[in-house]
Amino acid sequence: MNAAQTTAEHLDVVIVGAGLSGIGAAYRLQTEQPGRSYAILEARDALGGTWDLFRYPGIRSDSDMFTLGYPFKPWRDAQSIADGPSILRYITETATENGIDRHIRYGSKIVAAEWNSGESRWTLTVQRRTGEGVERHTLTCGFLYSCSGYYSYDQGHEPEFPGIADFAGTVVHPQFWPEDLHYAGKRVVVIGSGATAVTLVPAMAEQAELVTMLQRSPTWISAVPGRDKIADRIRDLLPADLAHRLIRTKNILFNIGFYQYCRRRPEAAKKLLTGLTTRILKDEGLVAEHFTPDYNPWDQRLCAVPNADFFKAMRKGKAEVITDHIETFVPEGIRLQSGRVVEADVVVTATGLQLLAFGGIDLVVDGAPVNLSDQFVWQGTMLTGVPNFAVCIGYTNASWTLRADLTSRLVCKVLGYMERNGYTAVVPEPQRALRERPLLDLASGYVQRSIADFPRQGDHNPWQVRQNYLLDTATVMRTDLSKTLRPVGAAKSLQRV
Q1: How far, CA to CA in Å, does 296 sit from each of 218, 261, 264, 330, 389?
Q2: Whether residue 410 sits in one domain with residue 337
Q3: I need a labelling partner for 125 at 20 to 30 A (CA). Which of 261, 369, 418, 442 fits?
Q4: In this predicted structure, what is the pLDDT of residue 396?
Q5: Which pLDDT belongs to residue 354?
């Protein structure tokens, strides 16, 4: 052990990321494993993660807040589909009310994480911004928990568009929205058809002359109520905590039921979705051309539009959709393969996220770099070959927080199991051979571009990352840890500081 290691600060647990997941993880840790020392390392200068990073017009949740919110803090605002600033306030309140904010270390990015089995601890090299510049220091911890999600905060996916340097207007990416962008009375083209695009179009249409959503192919889009009237009635009749649990259960059952309906009866689901859209737009040809994808619902994530605002903007003539391919940018806009030139003053490249596994931390175990794609995920939480390390991965077909909270509870259970049995470290090991499958089983382009760099899931429990909250709640917390978690390192109690 070198001198830097002997003087390094030691913590029981280090949580990476102060977003929705990280704040929830800290709450579970200090509630279910009280007395453990911990810190949250946040690379940015503010908490909130996604909900602080993204500042584009109309930013909002794509899941209802009764399930995207924490089970331990009822969502009390009127809107079920909430705007970004409201969600950020909610996360901030949670951190402040529970003293979690005092554990956050801002501007602190882990650039290296090395596990030593002889010492049963992680040594973290942390890069921290100060008034004088950037400095590096080390700290050690007994358990490392990554709650940084799976996309890059530093860059989005930006395809190379021919001729883009010739464009006379302004090009922006939603992930880095300029505060001084003025688009009132201007022609805007939004490239893309995912959740970000269908959010931007109606929000920008309120001021722009015309907003055009330019898509290569259609996406399944469904209008949903922005406000849950049944939830409002339940909250009027019942105490807040009981109402929250009941509304949450209602929404979980509905979302799981609709997902299963789409997967088991795809043709019926297609008919339902196109029928609802046709009822709003009153144009079967328009729906067939621009809103009827060639894939089944939930092969990719379904886009929800609250109060049908996207479709209403189209009906008002403030927005349009074009399905075509880009040939090249020209000074006045974009020329399509069909020959049409779409004039634009502002082009928004809502072309998706850039996946990045667990904040991009390079893991080293006993001197050997870890190749994530060689590892399997146990219970959607821990990795083979990497002791005392957990990751937070939310659902792709339901609210992220449903799975994130379950994962944090499982991490606490693992910590308790280690202490009771005198283990300083554990690592999951399969009992029989696993047939590998991608960690995220979605056909979306942003997933397919980078998923090969992620760990794998297996073909049977507890190595499957199931997209079913009901099954997970019934089994995850009841799992027998002794069957799959192998103790490693010295057999002594996990030390607390």
Answers
A1: 12, 11, 10, 35, 36
A2: no
A3: 418
A4: 82
A5: 75
The residue ranges of DSSP E strands in 267-402, in sequence order, are 303-306, 319-323, 326-330, 333-336, 341-343, 346-349, 353-355, 363-365, 368-369, 377-378, 382-383, 389-391
Q: At residue 448, does pLDDT exceed 70?
A: no
Q: Is 37 exposed, middle or buried (0-12, 13-18, 19+ CB in 10 A)?
A: middle
**Angle, vertex CA 437, rays to CA 431 and CA 440, nearest 5:** 120
135 and 205, same domain (yes or no): no
Which pLDDT score is estimated for 68? Answer: 95
**Structure tokens belonging to residue 223:** 């209008």
CA quadruple 102, 413, 108, 46: dihedral sign: negative
Q: Is the pTM of this model over 0.90?
A: yes
β-pair type (346-349, 187-191)? parallel
Q: Domain span at residue 307? A: 158-351
The DSSP code for 96 is: H
CA 74-78-81 angle, to 5 degrees, is 85
Judgement on whether residues 339 and 359 belong to the same structural domain of the protein: no
Q: Three-state SS for 160?
A: coil
